[in-house]
Every structure is written in structure tokens, then in C-alpha cells.
């Protein structure tokens, strides 16, 4: 049995007074493709930000490759972050640099490789995501799908053992989205990278996942293989998987009070 | 009664939020100085030389035409205004002294700083704010790159070098502006103006002016970058913080100017 690469214990977070995640427990084993599925605004990005150590949780702990990152200083966190690559929801390419420089940047900053080698590695990464020959373009000149690919090339620049994806296929047409899903599968097969993919796209979730975790209003409803999810009779899970909005009971008095307050 | 307690409460809240702001800003400033000057001494990573050089070009080379032009007009204005007063006493030949001293001690550093606060400080706020909105700052941190070291340090170093340089240019062209008025309008001989300028200026005038400009440099970079880092609410926030950065830097520049002028006036 392979070991846990990421384990989240009792993670609880707030933005101000508003609770975003309540007591989330999750283990992600090495080499696994974990998909975190949930509706818009349920706290998926927040959870990823915690995995990167960008924010500290109110309560709970997060172990990445055996180290508890919640107690680490910024310098200590940087050591852990070097093991991770992140594809952000908006790709987050540096707009002031060319695509090639974006991909080369982690290598230039963190390694002492010479420029020639860095150039070759950059082209290799761009080749892997199907963007060969685009290194001299600016991020502003790329389409949405190409930005995601370039962001992925940058995330992979340091050959990380963990890749985090924030909505890799959001805002893309189904064919381009499917291309990104295939790319994720290809990278997973080739490098055995541990992957955490956050998405609200059911089709791509079922396509890439080894295991799926369903997040609902900051809590985990279920965590299991795609088959287990499909078989589960829980109404909230069924609603989400069938793409139905949960039918909320309408409390007329409360509704009137809200309007009049 | 209710309005009175209300007023007290509001004053309290306002004071508290100002104190909180000052606290956050000082910590940001301390962090910036630590990453720029202390960390490299402790053998940690130093700010990138290439990026520092690029920022020096943006601040120094690209801003010098506007600084030089404005300083020359300020020198001309100053010469005309002082001549107007000095004529009453028949001592117009002292125009050179007055222009030289007020430019080097006060107006050269101040005008340069205000131009740069508007031109460069604002662009720092907009640039970093836009990066924050586009998750680029998070991306930096996720790549184990400290945004303060990566973005603030090169700008701080560049500004600390280039603002005093620009101030020297402003001083020279300001005095030259006075020269134009003195020679072509007041009919003083060029040699007389030159001699008066050299006689009047002592090293202390120039040194105190440059000291001021160092502190202005720190204010412009720290305020601009801080406003960038604290952008919230997307593009609208970028606009608001950019404006804030100009207002806040000019306010702090004048405050620092007053402090240093008083210090040099009373203490030395
Ligand atoms: N900086 C912030 N300040 C206050 N509240 C925030 C902040 N960022 C996020 N939130 C709140 O936290 C909740 C979860 O946000 P999060 O970005 O994690 O959602 P998400 O699951 O990624 O949604 P999406 O699919 O739309 O990206 C939202 O209700 C949002 O209003
Ligand atoms: Mg999100």
C-alpha cells in the first residue's frame, strides 16, 4: 500500500465570521488522482490555498509528504512548495513576461542550470502540453485553453511530485476541456504525480478521478471511487450528480422577515 | 445623548482603524527592509540584479525628461518671484543665492519626489494590484518566491539610487532656469549669477536635500507597493488604491519634509 502524500485533518477555516470549511478530513495517497467536486462557492479554491500554505487554517492540520505545514514559517513553507506545482483557476501567468519566460522562471529562480539548458527544458515542457513554438507570445495573446496549458507547463517546470489544479476545464468549450483532461491523464501516467483536481465539471471528474471527494457547503459528503459515488443513494449526492438544484423548503415567515428587516 | 455616544464610538472606531493601518504598514515596511538589506547579509537570497537594473531604467532614465523640464520652469518661476521682492530693496543681484538655496534645500527634492510619486508610485500600486487580482501574487508564493523580495526589493533599491540622482538633475536645471531669467530678463551678467550661486551654496544645503530625497524614495516605493498588495474587490479596487497611493505618498512626503527641515533647522 502506498503512503499518504497529503493528509488533511480536521481542517476548519473562516473568512471573518463566515465558516468556509468545517472539519474536513481527507487522505490523498502517493500517485493518486483525487478529484474534489463541488458547487461554485463551496470552498474548493479555499481548500487548495490551504494545501499551498497561502493561508493558515483556524483549526486542524495539513501534512504534506509527512510535514505539518500549518506550523511552518514562510521559509519552511517554501521548501514544501518546491514539491508542488499549481495550475490556478485563472492560470495566473505573469502578464509582463512571455510564455517561455513564465515556464522558465521557476528554473531560473531555483536552479543554477545554465540558460541554454533552461531554454531546452522550457521547450520540452511546452511540447508536453502541446504549445511548442508559442514561447515568444505574451499570455494576453493566448486563448483560455492555451493559457491553462501554459500554466500547466509552468506548474510542471520543476518536476513536482504533487500537482494541484483549480478548475482546469472551467470556462472552456467541451472539446478543449476534454483535451485538458487527456493531458492530465497523460501526465499522471508518465510521471506518477500525485494530483489534486478541483472542479465542478462532472464529466471531467469521472473521467480523471481515481477517487472523488464531494464537497458541499464546506463539508465532505462522501469520498470514494467513481463507482461508489454512482451507487450511493444519498439524496444530496444524487442531486449533485444528476445536476439538479437541491429543493429547498421555503419558510414563508422567514422569507418575509428577510424582506422586511 | 445618543448622538454624543455615537460620536464617541465613531471617533474610537476611526482611531482604531488608523492605528491598525499604521501597524500593518510599518510591518510591511520592516519586512521590505529586511528582505532588501538584512537577508542578503545573512546569506539568504538577494534581490535580482537584473530586475533592479530594469527598474532603475524605468525610474531614472524614463523619468528624467519630465523632471528636468518641470525643474527648469520651477527655477524660472522662483527667479521671477524673488526678483519681484528683491527689486523693492535694490538687491536683485541676490536672485542667484535665493534660487540656488531654495532649490537645493527644498524645491528640487520635493518637486522630484512629487512627480515620481505620481508617475512611478502610482504605477507600482496598479501593477502589483493587477497581479493580485489575477492571482499572480499567489502564483509567486506557490512557486516558493517571496513577493516582497521579488517585487518590492528591486524597486526599493532602484528608487533609493535613482531619486537622489534625479534630484541632482532637478537642482542643476532649476538653477539653470533661474539663470535664464536673471540673464535675459533681469540683465545680470552670467558670471555674476554663477558666482552668487557658488558663494551661496554650502555642502550642507546639497547634503540635506539629498538626505530628504532618500526618505522620499522609501515613502514612494513602500506606499505604492503596499497599496498594490492590499487591493481588494478586483479592478475597482486597483483604481481606488492607485489613487490612494498618490494621495498618501504626497501627504507622507510633505510630512517627512517638514520633519527633516525642522531637524536641520533646529538641530544643526
Ligand atoms: N478573500 C475572501 N474574503 C471573504 N470571503 C471569501 C474570500 N474568498 C472567498 N470567500 C468566500 O469563501 C467561499 C468559498 O470560496 P472559494 O473561492 O473557495 O469557492 P470555490 O469553491 O472555489 O468556488 P468557484 O467554483 O466559484 O471557484 C465563497 O462563499 C466566498 O464568498
Ligand atoms: Mg474556485
Q: What's the SSE blueprint?
A:
The complex is a heterodimer of chains A (261) and B (268).
Chain A: E1 4-15, E2 18-29, E3 33-38, H1 44-51, E4 59-64, E5 67-68, H2 74-81, E6 84-87, H3 99-110, H4 115-128, H5 144-155, E7 162-166, H6 174-191, E8 194-199, H7 202-208, E9 211-216, E10 219-224, H8 226-231, H9 235-241, H10 252-260
Parallel strand pairs in A: 3-8, 3-9, 6-7, 7-8
Antiparallel strand pairs in A: 1-2, 1-4, 4-5, 9-10
Helix pairs in contact in A: 3-4, 3-5, 4-5
Chain B: H1 2-41, H2 49-89, H3 95-133, H4 136-142, H5 147-184, H6 190-200, H7 203-229, H8 234-267
The structure holds adenosine-5'-triphosphate and magnesium ion.
Magnesium ion is lined by residues 44-45, 89, 166-167 of chain A.
Short précis:
With 261 residues, chain A is an alpha/beta fold.
Task: Walk me through what this model shows.
The complex is a heterodimer of chains A (261) and B (268). Chain A is an alpha/beta fold and 261 residues long. Chain A has helices at 44-51, 74-81, 99-110, 115-128, 144-155, 174-191, 202-208, 226-231, 235-241, 252-260, and strands spanning 4-15, 18-29, 33-38, 59-64, 67-68, 84-87, 162-166, 194-199, 211-216, 219-224. In chain A, strand 7, helix 6 (174-191) and strand 8 (194-199) form a beta-alpha-beta unit. Chain A is globular. Chain A starts with a strand and ends with a helix. Chain B has 268 residues and is an all-alpha fold. Chain B has one domain. Chain B contains 8 helices and no strands. Chain B is globular, with a radius of gyration of 22 Å. Classes of the chains: A alpha/beta (261), B mainly alpha (268). At the A-B interface, helix 2 and helix 3 of A face helix 3 and helix 4 of B. The structure holds adenosine-5'-triphosphate and magnesium ion (MG).
Biggest sheet record of chain A: 6 strands, mixed
What integer is the average pLDDT of chain A?
A: 90
Q: How far apart lie the N and C ends of chain B?
A: 52 Å
Please estimate the helix content of chain A. 25-40%
Q: How many strand segments of chain A? A: 10
Number of helices of chain B: 8
Number of strands of chain B: 0
Overall tally of structural domains of chain B: 1
Oligomer: heterodimer
CATH superfamily of the largest domain in chain A: P-loop containing nucleotide triphosphate hydrolases
SSE string of chain B: HHHHHHHH
The SSE order of chain A reads: EEEHEEHEHHHEHEHEEHHH
Helix tally of chain A equals 10
